[in-house]
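Here is an idea for our session: we take a single protein and study its fold together. Which protein we use is up to you, so please pick one and set it down. Once you have written the record down, we can walk along the chain together:
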Amino acid sequence: MVLDSTPLHHFRSEPASDPQVTEHSHYDSKTVRHPKSQDDKPLVSIVAPAYNEAAIIQSNLVDLCQYLEHLEDEYQWELILVNDGSRDHTGDLAEAFARSRDNVHVIHHVRNAGLGQALRSGFAQSRGAYIITLDLDLSYAPEHIEALLTKIRQTGAKLVVTSPYMKGGKVSNVPRLRLLLSIWANRFLSVAARHNVSTLTGMVRVYDAEFLQMLNLRSAGMDINPEVVHKAMLLGVKIEEIPAHLHWRNPPPIAQPVAKSARRKSSMKILSHIWVTFYYGFVFRPVMFFIVPSLFCFLLTLYSISWAVLHSWRNYQALTQSMPFPDPTEAIALAFKQSPHTFVISGMLLMVSIQLFSLGVLAVQNKRYFEEVFYLGTAIYRSTQRR
């Protein structure tokens, strides 16, 4: 970070994951991280990425700030807007809004770098003791902010996520296909993670800022959300969840025709989300992708072998009627002539089963190695910070 002495204190940096992205924002160089007032009110940082939100940004910012003002008896707050390379007037409208408030700041990316990079840019400039990430479309109403803060302070958790899929949660006005993909993606990840968190892909969360500082986040896209949960689980920190209401306030009209280019982009996003889901399912629990299929192949192999043994025995009994002590290999040869594909398939399935099992063992071993390296890196970082 480089701070100059100009009145607005422009910030410029080059994010590590993408040197093509440039940012700037307005900050006071005399502020420190996690400040508290004389009344000992914790500072809460709201990080809200925005991409082509010109149609809704003004009204939603007014709604959000009006809600945050109701929390000022208990909290200080700052709002950090990350304009992630918007092609409309989102950046200009955000700057115009920020000029009227000292605790609203804007970070600009020269081009769209993805949700992960936008959040990491916001995290880097957050000064609060708690950091909340929020969708600027307010599909999760601002009222969730107080519920998140209450939960993290009461439980001492390092991460609290909102979930419309847990008991007490609710979903409204979301397109059916999008909803089904989200539900099953989160169910799959929840099973893979073997944790009581039912929504691992949601962005609306509250973080303990000191904990979030320890994580070396790498994701540039939407996979940053399961990445944080994964690393939090590796460190064994407490993760909590609150029921939430996911409500699309302005869903896209179904009746309007969609251009082919837009359909291609939408399809790519869906495929990308599916890939991220399976990837983190593998990261959470690689045994599911190797050991389980290997056991399935082995069961099919046992079935094929059982068939071959049964028919070889029947052929042997038939041969005993013409000779007292027939050669057993002749009975096996007859069974092979009756169904050669059974022997071939059983042999192939056995080899596949052994290969998958071996890969599963290696995957689990590599996961253990990664966990040890991650623990070591975190311990070194903590030690460095204390010094």
